[in-house]
Amino acid sequence: MKATNNPNGRPKGVPNKMTADLKSRIAQIVENVFECIEPDLMALEAKDRVNALLKFLEYLLPKQRETKIDISSLSDEEVEELLSKALKNHENK
């Protein structure tokens, strides 16, 4: 086994150097050629243009994960209060 300075490994959530470098290179390529491909993208039908842009974004943005909250230990009143706050926040956006 190879000796390492960090016996616990890479911290959770920190991408390895190759992944970070690859993402950086892809972002740079997209940035460099975007002006060239922009007319091609605009010529696509709206649904195809959206799909193309979503494919680019897969390499630039982390995927969002569903957040689950366990409310089984809360009282009905606490659940109602949380729901009310969430609805107010949503309405204010």
Provide an overview of this structure:
The chain is an all-alpha fold. It has one domain (17-91). Helix content is 60%, strand content 0%. It is built from three helices and no strands. The longest helix is centred in the first third of the chain and has 27 residues, at 17-43. 0% of the residues are buried.
What's the layout of helices and strands?
Elements: H1 17-43, H2 46-58, H3 76-91
Summarize the structure.
About 60% of the residues lie in helices and about 0% in strands. The chain is an all-alpha fold.
Q: Helix/strand/pairing class, anyone?
A: mainly alpha
Backbone shape = flat
Count of beta strands: 0
Give unreliable regions as ranges: none
Domain module tally: 1
